[in-house]
Amino acid sequence: MPQRSAFVFILVFLTALIAADYGGWRLTRPVDHWVNDRLLARHAPLHAPSADIVIIDIDQKSLTALIDEAGSWPWPRAMHAELLDALARQQPKAVVFDLMFNEPDTFRADSDKLFQDTARQHADVLYLPSVQLADGTGPLLRNLPPSLGLIKTPTANLNASLPLLLPWAMPQETWRGGLINFLADHDGVGRNYLLRRNFEGWQIPALAGQLAADQHWQIPPQDRITLNWTAPHRRISFSDFYLDFNSEHPKRASNEFAGKIILIGTAAPGLQDLRPTPIAAAYPGVEILATAIDNLQHGDWLRRPHHVWFGLWALALCGLLVLGFWRGINMLWLGVTLIITSVLSVVAGWLALGQNWLLPLYGPLAWGWLCYWLCALQAWLSEKRRRERAMQMFGRFLDPRVARSLVDSADLAVSQRAHSQQITVLFSDIRGFTSLSEAHPPEFVVDLLNRYFTRQVAVIFKHGGTLDKFIGDCIMAFWGAPTDDPDHARHAVAAALEMAAELAAFKQTLSELNHLNTEFDVGIGIHTGTAVVGFIGAPSRLDYTVIGDTVNLASRIESQTKGIARILVSDATRQACGDAFGFVDCGSHHVKGREQAVQLFEPKEK
Asked: In the chain, what percentage of residues exceed pLDDT 70?
């Protein structure tokens, strides 16, 4: 019952934590992220990128190849003007710059002027980025040009201002585009992409969202999407394309980018536009933008079910585990079942990615494993307590080493059943105990007996015997049960001889008895035979004992020792000992309850 209460406590405790987790704390969110990130990294190469999206990459090769013509970065904006003009002639769907033009180039004003004029000429396909800053002051949103695409809702604050990094170097009529802020989760990894920013009743579009709206693609109602990563999009080195269209005889097709969405950005490490994502710790920002546009084009961004369903699954999983432990189902089978559940969850998560679903299945698994180990710990502690109780119970009459072996070998249940078995029984009785009791105070007699019994029981346990009981001043012990001992007779006789030697050593400490000239001696009787062994008694009070004629005869033999020998054994015991000891024949004797005489022997050490 205490164990069941502990299991109930574990379930209640975990229920409270799971409710807090899925109620807002998100304790297991890192677990879901960790597994899903790895699934996404392996799924992305299988997810084909859109053939309509092309990246003009300002890579390290381009920075090196154009150093003579453009100088070091940042390049003169005339380079971008020439690129925009060359691309626009091929009639693409859009030319998207993933580069900031927030400050005029005061040293190359003519270069800026060329880019501005070119931007006006091709404003119908041009998209420029902006960024919301973390702090600072910004323009009043009502004063921003319509080309930026802000939406004023009925609740808009007309005096609202937002710190925005805008393309101030470009004409305001060309500002179509939007925010490209990197959205990082609590661990710094970018898994989502912004579609719009809501601020004091104003909606500020993100670049990917604005492009999707212009292309009349489906736009989800939420402000952000979870990215469904693809294999890398087609990339063309900036220098390859730039040098080709400026050559006398271009080799590239004149309609290479017709109907395409062209993104111009950088993957060069030195230009610091690399971000941590599930795909890589340093992933090009332009590729993140391309993925967002790709997802919006095909409507295959990742959907997420409501997390409350997974909280319920965590509760159900923990409840089933607690029920299994409660009913005593093998812990190994429960663990195997949980492993199978974990594997199936990963498989389900992988298959769900193919259907554009991101399932947070792994937080519930974390709770399930926590529940499993807590219940396993409780079961282990319960088993440990059970073993300790068994040790305490058997320790009353067994050598502790024998008791530990019995408990560890899981033979306890078998030993509880009464059964017939060949054993050797020993009785040891103090001679003259009545006279001793009459001559000394009760306190002295009890102390004497306790000291004597302590020494004698230690010898019995030393030889692997089982202490049955104390009967007044008599000790009853037996060998051969509860653990099997084929040499039980030899061990019983060896114990009797050492008990006699221990008695002699004990008597040396009894100066008070020597002073009073009081006799203190023992008689030991041993017999080997079949007896009933096991727990015997009422359900509320059981004793592990032996009963039968073998026990009676051992007691009768002990009563014959006075005047003959300190230790007497039956012929059955002598034969069972083989040649381990020497035996002195003490003749045949009639004992109470037996018609035939019993042949008795005194054992001697060889």
From this structure: 93
